[in-house]
Amino acid sequence: MEERLQKFLAEAGVASRRKAEELITAGKVQVNGKTVTELGTKIDPQKDEVVYAGKKIDRQREKLVYIMLHKPEGYVTTAKEQFGRPAVLDLVKGVEERIFPVGRLDYETSGLLLLTNDGELTYKLTHPKHDVEKTYIARLYGTPDDSALQKFRRGVIVDGRQTKPAKIRILEKGDRICTVEITIHEGRNRQVRKMCEAIRHPVAQLKRVATGELRLGELPKGKFRYLTAAEVKYLKSL
Ligand code: URA
Q1: Which residues contact 150 (CB under 8 A, 6 or more apart)?
Q2: If you measure from the C-alpha of residue 15 to the centroid of ligand 1, how many angstroms do you get, rounded to a whole number?
Q3: 67, 116 in Cβ contact below 8 A?
Q4: Could you give all domains of the chain from N- to C-terminal order, each with its CATH number?
Q5: For the whole model, what pTM was predicted?
Q6: Catalytic-residue membership of 159
Q7: Please, which of 30, 107, 170, 177 could form a disulfide with 51 given CB 3.0 to 4.6 Å?
Q8: What 3-state DSSP class applies to 45?
Q9: Which residues, 6+ apart, have CB-to-CB distance to 29 below 8 Å?
Q10: Cβ of 110 below 6 Å from ligand 1
Q11: Ligand 1 centroid vs 60 CA: distance in angstroms?
C-alpha cells in the first residue's frame, strides 16, 4: 500500500514527521535513485527503495525506544549545536538507536524531556491540535495577586496572539520569590516565560514536571530511564 514519504521516514525512526519533511524539501532523500523534494510524494514501502544519508531505510530496521530524561539547565535540546554548548543527546550515551527529543525545553529550563525514535508519536505529541497538558514548577519574582492570576488563567497576549486558558496556583510565597505550579496546553516558543512576563512576574527558574499524566518523579537531574510499557501505551492513547 502506498503512503506518504514523510510518514514512512518518521515510522522508520529517521526523524520526526516535521523534520522528515524538512529533509525531503532539502533534497536529502532519494527514492529509487532519484532525489525527491515534493512533500506529497507517495511510495510503496514493499517496492520502492528509499535512501537517506547514503543508507537504505527499512522500517523494521530499528526497534522503537522511549526515554524520559531529567534535563539539567545549561543543555540545548537541538541535536546539532552550533555554539558548542552541551546538548541533551550527550546525556543519553549508550542508547544505540538514533533518538531525538520530543519538542523542546529552553537552554535554562530543566525537567522532563522525552526522547524517542518513534516519529509518529513525536508528531502526535507536538502537534498543536492534540493539546497535551504540560505541567511546570516555576519560581517567579514577586507574588502574583488574584487579578494577575486570573489574567494568566484566562490567557495573555504572547507574540501578538492570545494564549489558551491555563492553570496557575501558588505553592509557596516568599519575600522576593514565590513558587507556582503552571499547566499549559500549548508549546509555543518560551511560552511559560513570556506568559509570566505578561503578568509582570518574570521567571527565575523553570522546571517541567509532567507531560499529561507522565511524571518526572524522583528521576535525578541528568539521568534518564526507559518508559514502561504502560507509559508508552498511555502516550499513544493521547
Ligand atoms: N515554556 C518556556 O518558557 N520554556 C520552556 O522550556 C518550556 C515551556
Answers
A1: none
A2: 22
A3: yes
A4: 3-56 (3.10.290.10), 66-128+214-237 (3.30.70.580), 133-211 (3.30.70.1560)
A5: 0.79
A6: no
A7: 30
A8: coil
A9: 5, 9, 23, 35, 36, 50, 51, 52
A10: no
A11: 34
